[in-house]
Amino acid sequence: MRDESVFDELKEECGVFGILGHPDAVQLTYYGLHALQHRGQESAGIAVTDGTGFRYHRSMGLVNEVFTPDILEGLKGSTAIGHVRYSTTGESLLTNAQPLVFHNAVVGQLALATNGNLVNANRLKEELEEQGAVFHTTSDTEVIAHLIARSDAPSLEEAVKEALNQLTGAYALLILTNDALLVAQDPHGLRPLSMGLLGDAYVFSSETCAFDVVGAEYLRGVQPGELLILDRDGLRSSRFAPPASRAVCSFEYIYFARPDSDIDGINVHTARKSLGRKLYEEAPVEADVVTGVPDSSTSAAIGFAEAAGIPYELGLIKNRYVGRTFIQPSQHLREQGVKMKLSAVRKVVEGKRVVMIDDSIVRGTTSRRIVNMLREAGATEVHVRISSPPVKYSCFYGIDTANRKQLIASNHSPEEIREIIGADSLTFLSPEGLIQAVGRPQENANCGHCLACFDGKYPTEIDEEESLAVEGKR
Amino acid sequence: MRDESVFDELKEECGVFGILGHPDAVQLTYYGLHALQHRGQESAGIAVTDGTGFRYHRSMGLVNEVFTPDILEGLKGSTAIGHVRYSTTGESLLTNAQPLVFHNAVVGQLALATNGNLVNANRLKEELEEQGAVFHTTSDTEVIAHLIARSDAPSLEEAVKEALNQLTGAYALLILTNDALLVAQDPHGLRPLSMGLLGDAYVFSSETCAFDVVGAEYLRGVQPGELLILDRDGLRSSRFAPPASRAVCSFEYIYFARPDSDIDGINVHTARKSLGRKLYEEAPVEADVVTGVPDSSTSAAIGFAEAAGIPYELGLIKNRYVGRTFIQPSQHLREQGVKMKLSAVRKVVEGKRVVMIDDSIVRGTTSRRIVNMLREAGATEVHVRISSPPVKYSCFYGIDTANRKQLIASNHSPEEIREIIGADSLTFLSPEGLIQAVGRPQENANCGHCLACFDGKYPTEIDEEESLAVEGKR
Amino acid sequence: MRDESVFDELKEECGVFGILGHPDAVQLTYYGLHALQHRGQESAGIAVTDGTGFRYHRSMGLVNEVFTPDILEGLKGSTAIGHVRYSTTGESLLTNAQPLVFHNAVVGQLALATNGNLVNANRLKEELEEQGAVFHTTSDTEVIAHLIARSDAPSLEEAVKEALNQLTGAYALLILTNDALLVAQDPHGLRPLSMGLLGDAYVFSSETCAFDVVGAEYLRGVQPGELLILDRDGLRSSRFAPPASRAVCSFEYIYFARPDSDIDGINVHTARKSLGRKLYEEAPVEADVVTGVPDSSTSAAIGFAEAAGIPYELGLIKNRYVGRTFIQPSQHLREQGVKMKLSAVRKVVEGKRVVMIDDSIVRGTTSRRIVNMLREAGATEVHVRISSPPVKYSCFYGIDTANRKQLIASNHSPEEIREIIGADSLTFLSPEGLIQAVGRPQENANCGHCLACFDGKYPTEIDEEESLAVEGKR
Amino acid sequence: MRDESVFDELKEECGVFGILGHPDAVQLTYYGLHALQHRGQESAGIAVTDGTGFRYHRSMGLVNEVFTPDILEGLKGSTAIGHVRYSTTGESLLTNAQPLVFHNAVVGQLALATNGNLVNANRLKEELEEQGAVFHTTSDTEVIAHLIARSDAPSLEEAVKEALNQLTGAYALLILTNDALLVAQDPHGLRPLSMGLLGDAYVFSSETCAFDVVGAEYLRGVQPGELLILDRDGLRSSRFAPPASRAVCSFEYIYFARPDSDIDGINVHTARKSLGRKLYEEAPVEADVVTGVPDSSTSAAIGFAEAAGIPYELGLIKNRYVGRTFIQPSQHLREQGVKMKLSAVRKVVEGKRVVMIDDSIVRGTTSRRIVNMLREAGATEVHVRISSPPVKYSCFYGIDTANRKQLIASNHSPEEIREIIGADSLTFLSPEGLIQAVGRPQENANCGHCLACFDGKYPTEIDEEESLAVEGKR
């Protein structure tokens, strides 16, 4: 993750992890969340049950800050769910940390952890408040909790289905009770959620990299509209929405997911290298070196370099030790050339024609800064190649893109952007190139991706009021 | 830097930074030290003078932990020196944090910061204590302070020269007084130390990456046996030892220095790529993918891949969020496959013949673990290529190699090591290959490198007693 | 407050503070809470409104730990309520920290702070959960929030009255909205709550000592069953329960309240001195010195000494620096005489007949320890005088007495207790003596006090199930 | 201790504790230092030896903050010394925390802890620096370390004596080596230092209250000019200065020492009560209530009240929870009457003639504020009685009196002071009254006290330069 105070970029979202029936459930959830840390650094939490009662701990901070040996020790039980959070909707408050734990007359204790964003959360919340509901947090997850609590359905399974049918948006959802683990994914499968096996224990994770870390084996992805119930009777799959083909968020491949994760069987690093190769096919250029903006563009840059036969070099270096408390240089010092966390390597780029690969352009300010950095370090030409199409539309599914007014590609042609960032040339990957490079199975008209931020075709209804709220607040 | 609790590896050492006559001296030192953070994460400190008195702050922790805005604000002055420390000699105590500040009747206030290690520190300390000296720290730097304080020389310059002539070992040294900045390097130039210019202000740094960060221009390296005096009369160069050709520590190129630093005009990333290319020339292999152990071996791996025409892939992934407080998995969980910070990417290596590039083998335990990880992820063959010669001898100049008994190459042939680590093939780079690949100017018999850890030919005398102490204690 | 880990004692409860229409509302609440710190050290919180929206901060810790200058600075507004908490019901969780802030469709944002304990909270909670309510905390205050939220009443005032009429128990309640401050007290006035004036601003506080600290003038106590509404139209008093004569918790006078507070116009220190004087009248004794168990028994001890004409001495000394992180001596060291925070002063008690005044006996273990301490320090006789009647019944109104089985006076006669604690004589103050000494105005049959822990006559109904729960869990 | 940021007052100094030959030496030192916490809250430290090597830990903060269970656990050994520090000479730096540990060729490892202040420290330091000594701290203790280190004496005992003979000033000194514990007191016995026995183990402490806490028995005071050596051969007493009668600092009785400590067999609380009684004898007054400024004047106030037959009341209350991080009210709020930590109790003083007892007047600002507070609370008359003579001269022995210009009694007559502080009457105790009330044995012309701050008769020579330095800097 690049530092949001410096670079304009897409904000990552959340990660969930769950495990059922393992004596080391809490420790494994700790390592699993740690592997998902890149999906959210704001808060972390684990809830666990030993079958008779819950224990949980949530706090602001990284997984290894939130959980000390003492705290882990105090969390006993064999079924656990965990969450790492980067706030999109909802302020950065401890009360928004997940899992959300509550008690309800019908179902007893419940813990919820979700990754994603509802499109109709505010509308649902207003309706619930009119009926006397008391909300403590500003997170979407609490809306789901209230819907479940208010259901008159005879079983938890039915109550959850009833609740999910009222939701519009993207979500991967884990629900823990003393007796069961429920797992669901939104009807379009916008966020990844995988199922694995560790010995006899079922494991669920936003990304498969967590399976590798805990030594679990990948079984399959949770399906769009699927609700899994795991309890004493084993694993049962049911549906709360008609089968639809999956439209997974493209940016999971492009930027969010860890390179060692697979999404629906496609490795992310490999997909990124393909994006780089495809990008070279679509927009070749004569140059001396290829460099990527670390760390997220490294794979695409290597792919581009290999396809082009141009050496891949570390033309840009990131300081690994920039922490959250780093003191920013004053404007005065910044103007004098003090850099913070990214610097160009003079010896590598001096006198060279440089291809700079980045994964996306949001506002354009970072790109302009990096191009400038490369020129100051002596690059004779800077050719920018972006391994995704231009981002023109806001995301309502949990990605903190800027609002449309701030998206440079929403208001400018590629040529205008090239001029603004000061590059010698600039090319974005085409949507078709993206689809082909990733290589997801395509069914009928469905390309297997959500491309809404590129083409504005949202897979769900978009609540107009909510949409304005999102646009307004960002 | 890889995590010492997990991997056996060479420990990095210290970094120094100094700037003379700049209104933002302290802020720039902060950013400079931040760029040198990879050279030492144990403690950090800055001493500054406004010409009339000193202020300083030192504490355990990373630069951005040690210095808060309030603390930086309180450090006023235009000439400053700073230090980041990884303990080699001397325990991990706050009292060992540098710069060391003391007061002396002859020269008033002094602050010292050094990078390196003296070979005769204990002997000098004993002699000084017999004369009634009181030592507060266990660091070598205090020995230098006492030698300066006890000198009867008429000027600080003479006193420093007198002191330096009693030292044997490796050091880059900065001395701050209210009136002057003194800079020296040991007679063999074992540790890098560069001089730059930022506007009118002279800047000194262990590595040139700090110049890029603060916007300074590189002038030249400080010479072996050179003592620079910077005061009201400007910059004066003198010598305290006869001119000798430099024997810079090879591991600065191989592993320690940041890839964007230059040492004597040679870029470190470029040197590492050459090491990789040379390694392929010396030990070609048929394979499907090349991967490097992140992060230090990435450059060499790319060089190898380019020379070989084999794709470079991210076959090994490191979790960036492993902090110092991370909870280690129990032996039990480790055996079940829980990984902590490095994991192999199954989709990348499965069914492939893998070349794994690493920069060095110290005890061999890490290499064995990584080879095993790759095999478990499905690699059909694992060929290990090391971009340095076998480490057979202890370093006495500030690198925390293990003692000789623990160095696997000191007791085993490459073939035996191959068997121990379980690789299909293993080749180390030859010393000649190292020298050629880096490409330092060679004068007479001197190759420009210290290769003592490979060939046991130490450039300085080695105090037998000290040597035993080092061997014994490690 | 004495340290609960060492001494068995009554646990203090909570404190509330509110101020309406003052530019320094937050700072004044900070100082007010600070003056109420003795009523709760577990967590502290402030919610404030500027008329358009809320800001709040709550955290575990003392007032001066929870609020830094930065945090106070961020809390802008002219009407604020604050809370300090010592958990009685509800676990020690951050989520239980008050004020409780929530949003509701009918009334917008609300913040609640309460001091006290409901007797029928669990029953209400169950009913609410059956109706689909989602509870986040284990505190009684959330029950009140839900009752208000679910009311169909046309105004907040009516909704609050409706809610309060469903509550049984003890409470002083502050409710903040963007437009108004509502203040209520339970129908028996079990917990103190006073109203004051600071310039034009109304101030409310659990104790009047906070008025002195902020420079406010005392106006009157909030009446049992009174609901005050303060908004744009000024101050309006209404009733939600018929007028009843107040039955204030006796232990507020005996032990809880700060000596400089007045409760219904009676100063607490003065009341305690009277208790001491009355105790001498009821149980005179020949002795050489009178000493009190610091700090809570000092006033009674001085009263006793003055009445008896026996010198008052510091025969017992408390270490002021015992913090929450103090390391307890091992059993082994304790047996060897290592004391932690209370020690007897040998020179004062040696060879003397000592009267030791304490405010109450709960389990008896502390008294035994102190008597023993005095004897070891050389006291020839130890006469214990307790400035309250024997505590025989559990409190359901927010005081954490032990459960009845653990109350020594519930199971033993005074003579048996004397033997257990090893005193030469022991007398408790009589209930009549208590009533006379405090000197509250008495109306009809009502003595003005709640004496339930002494005589078991609870002023409210006690829910049998809840009562069992309380007994069971403690 | 009152808060120095609010009240002008005498600053307390340091405390030392040592124990030889006890398996729980470190834990006992921890509890001992905790009992001495009132003598210094800035830093704390413990050094311990197991006979073969030292371990030590020092840090800024209170004893219970500095020492965690882990840290205590790591300090193994049976002979320990400890220190709590309030800085007088020397800035508030961690490096000044004691015990000071150093290594010396002749005597091996040494740890020093001192309570007191040298009058000739700067002069000695200059001389030592001229000889090449390197000073790390600004504390007097390091001067002693250097003198010992430079001695050519054949034994540690002789070296220490030689060093002590060069010192002028007040000190209680503990020296720890691997083989021995050395204990010394300055030739005038200005600071208290007592010896006790805990089983077979000798214990030393600045105050006897620490003996009570650890269960040790008081043996005797260390004598002026005495050097005790405790080693394998047992306890040996020797002298480094001729026997002189003790001149203990009067303020130990008046203000510094804990009421439960004895100094030379006289209990401090009892002495303070006598001061109060004597004060009434010397300056009787008709009044309704007597109150003391908490906490240090409580004993004197009770003594005064008993002698006068006037009731003692809590007319002034201190908030116990004022910590070091408390946010001070702005000037604006202070003017509006916001109090921080001391408040008058209206119900107690309203309409009453009040005698207010305080232990001393330094600058007079606090007294004025308290008199004013009492009047605002309704006192009709305020008679101030001070249980010590007027402080007219600076202390050079470790008490941070203001410099003479700031001492109100140095520049004003009692009548002028009365007017300044706004009292109806004001009387100071006479020096004769002080001497009689405390009741120390008097020999010849020596009254047994140092009264220098009252009469300017310093028991030691005062270095004129140092004296100016002290006057100047304060």
UniProtKB/TrEMBL annotation, chains A, B, C, D:
It catalyses: 5-phospho-beta-D-ribosylamine + L-glutamate + diphosphate = 5-phospho-alpha-D-ribose 1-diphosphate + L-glutamine + H2O. Residues 14-233 form the Glutamine amidotransferase type-2 domain. It is an enzyme of class 2 (transferase). Binds 1 [4Fe-4S] cluster per subunit. Binds 1 Mg(2+) ion per subunit. Its cofactor is [4Fe-4S] cluster; Mg(2+). Mg(2+) binds at S296, D358, D359. GO terms for molecular function: amidophosphoribosyltransferase activity. [4Fe-4S] cluster binds at C249, C395, C450, C453. NCBIfam families: purF. HAMAP family: PurF. Catalyzes the formation of phosphoribosylamine from phosphoribosylpyrophosphate (PRPP) and glutamine. In the C-terminal section; belongs to the purine/pyrimidine phosphoribosyltransferase family. This is Amidophosphoribosyltransferase.
